[in-house]
Amino acid sequence: MTVQVQPDREAALANGRAFLIARVRDSNLAGEAFFGGHAQAIAACAATMADHFFTGATLLVFGSGPHATDAQHNAVEFVHPVLPGCRALPALSLTNDMATVTGLLQTDAAADVYAHQLRILGRPGDIALALAHAPVHPSISRGLEAGRAAGMLTVALTSGDESVEREHVDYVFHAQGSDRAAAHELHLATYHMLWELVHIVLNHRGIRAVS
Amino acid sequence: MSDSGRDPFSQLLYPMLSSQPAAGDDLVLELARAPLEKSAESNRLRVEMLEEFGDEIVTTAEEMAVAFDRGGRLLALGNGGSATSAADMVTELLVPPPGGRPIPALCLTNDIAVVTGIGNDIGFGDVFLRQIIALGRPDDVVLAVSASGNSENLVRGLGEARRRGMSTIAICGYDGGRLAREPVADHCFIVRSSSVHRIQEVQMTLYHLLSELVQRAFGGEPACV
Q1: Mutate to test the interface with B, among A40, A52, A67, A69 (most CBs of B within 10 A)
Q2: For the whole model, what pTM was predicted?
Q3: Structure ipTM
Q4: Are B147 and B83 contacting, i.e. CB atoms less than 8 angstroms apart?
Q5: Per-residue pLDDT for B6 more than 70?
């Protein structure tokens, strides 16, 4: 056994409880700081995304490791809206196609795993959304560059010690210095908010669900 | 961008709308209040969740660590956004932060051939149950994530796992739904909210806490302290 079960149950619980309280306090403080600093930009980004959807954009989302799950979460969020009355909007996760992803990984074009899909699947006016924790892998930077070069709106949700090169990205939401798991929680809340605000703007413009 | 862009659904479906204004500065200012309000609500729910379930999170993580130490694995289930939570928990364990111990874990939504095969031939209610029968072992820990707690395939999957002697954990929202009412979960954590988004945000913290406590039990330093 490598797991040591603390025989003193009260001490074990107190120890665990102290960890949880500190961790949740850190999470909540990080949330206050992050959204305090980014609320305006989140609203502006959502309004711009709504303009793009209004003219037929598809949202293309990519990220690696835990962020691959965010790409899928964004796709289901937009394609299958949780609130009645919201229109289904086009969104694709670039992490889903295992044949393509693993195929590209075993070629010299591994760092183009997202850039390739953006170039071939994307159209001008689409939205490229990347999620990444530092150090930012070249596949993420190249994806954003490819999106920009193809005439897309580019958005990045990043965290850790460094973000992406801002010259290729229209909106960057960066959680500085946070640990990966806590920052991931901020990213989830951020794209939930982007989704909701996109629909508020589209509603404002008269776009509702097709019956 | 012009409203006369390519393939605009505004023109196909709502030709009368092309004169509607884009979001102006006033609307953006109004919208900017939302992230602050929603983040504050998530923070409140996190504290509430901890007050109700803190001790059970600690004991559950300890049971998980013991099961993994015996060779058990995590099998994770979920539908929709909750499927991505299940997948996130799996990769947290399988590829932990530096210094952590990798733990075998499988997300039962990953194989689209299996999911659509079972869904088509038997029914969507059995997509997890059948995989539990085929893949599950007695030392495994089965984790179901759901906002409503009412998904038929999760209730059946978790019930089957329990019948086969596996440990079962449910992470739900609202009032916990069927996963809380029916005797399928050894531990059932509930984020008591009616907003799917806020539920998912606090659920993510909850399963991160479980994975960080598991790593602590193995002697690894959690990433956040």
Answers
A1: A69
A2: 0.91
A3: 0.93
A4: no
A5: no
